[in-house]
């Protein structure tokens, strides 16, 4: 697997994801954000979903129009009021790889956090709307801020050159925000019960087992979506 930076917002990169496999697929074709990806093949012992098992495509759309080999992707741009802060706007993992133990989402977030430091950013932020994403971002070195967006998403952030300061109390305060919400799924209810009064997860160690590269890919402005 390879972690690759396709470009910063100024490069206007575009990525055509299969909307049957990825959430937020339409957010990666606008050219308005930077993009980084995990691409390649998952481990041989992982049981991947065959394309043939997915729903049919419209007659005017073919498989060849999607970018091949993408396992996870993140779109990001600078904060409008804080030029030293980078927002991770959309983070998506291929549907059959979610919960696989590969930690693709946390590892990709940690990857772009490190690249943001090289770019001169001092802080990375992300807003999440579910408890699983909240928990996963703690593995990337993020921590809850106690703030929410207007859409009731919890905001997490981390310094680009270090792990955020984390504590059980702050972690649990974020979980408590989800516990107060109505309409939680059975899986969310179970997760929250199992994580009552526990410490936040340990940050992942990205190491160098996967290749980290600059792809050099920067689609020209005006490329068809």
Keyphrases for this structure?
alpha+beta; Aminopeptidase; 8-stranded mixed beta sheet; 4 helices; disordered C terminus; N-acetyltransferase domain-containing protein; Acyl_CoA_acyltransferase
Layout of strands and helices, then pairs:
Layout: E1 2-7, E2 34-39, E3 70-78, E4 85-93, H1 104-119, E5 123-128, H2 131-139, E6 143-148, E7 154-159, H3 168-179, H4 186-194, E8 211-214
Parallel strand pairs: 1-8, 4-5
Antiparallel strand pairs: 1-2, 2-3, 3-4, 5-7, 6-7
Give a quick summary of the entry.
The C terminus is likely disordered. With 225 residues, this protein is an alpha+beta fold.
Walk me through the structure.
The chain has 225 residues and is α+β, with helices and mostly antiparallel strands. It has one domain: Aminopeptidase (3-Layer(aba) Sandwich), CATH 3.40.630. It has four helices and eight strands. It has helices spanning 104-119, 131-139, 168-179, 186-194, and strands spanning 2-7, 34-39, 70-78, 85-93, 123-128, 143-148, 154-159, 211-214. Strands 6-7-5-4-3-2-1-8 form an eight-stranded mixed beta sheet. α1 packs across α2. Mean pLDDT is 89; it is low at 216-225.
């Amino acid at each position: 697997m390879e972690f690759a930076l396709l470009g910063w917002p100024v490069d206007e990169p575009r990525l055509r994801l299969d909307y049957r496999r990825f959430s937020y697929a339409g957010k990666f074709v606008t050219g308005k954000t930077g993009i980084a990806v995990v691409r390649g093949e998952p481990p041989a012992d992982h049981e991947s979903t065959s394309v043939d098992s997915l729903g049919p495509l419209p007659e005017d759309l073919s498989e060849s129009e999607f970018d091949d080999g993408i396992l996870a992707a993140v779109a990001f741009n600078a904060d409008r009021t804080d030029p030293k802060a980078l927002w991770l706007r959309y983070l998506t993992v291929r549907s059959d790889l979610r919960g696989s133990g590969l930690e693709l989402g946390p590892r990709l977030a940690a990857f772009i956090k490190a690249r943001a430091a090289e770019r001169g950013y001092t802080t990375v932020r992300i807003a999440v709307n579910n408890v699983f994403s909240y928990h996963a971002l703690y593995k990337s070195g993020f921590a809850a801020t106690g703030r929410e967006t207007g859409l009731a998403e919890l905001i997490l952030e981390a310094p680009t050159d270090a792990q955020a300061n984390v504590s059980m109390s702050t972690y649990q305060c974020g979980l408590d925000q989800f516990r107060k919400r109505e309409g939680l799924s059975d899986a969310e209810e179970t997760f929250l019960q199992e994580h009552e009064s526990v410490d936040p997860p340990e940050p992942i160690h990205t190491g160098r087992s996967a290749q980290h590269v600059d792809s050099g890919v920067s689609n020209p402005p005006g490329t068809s979506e």
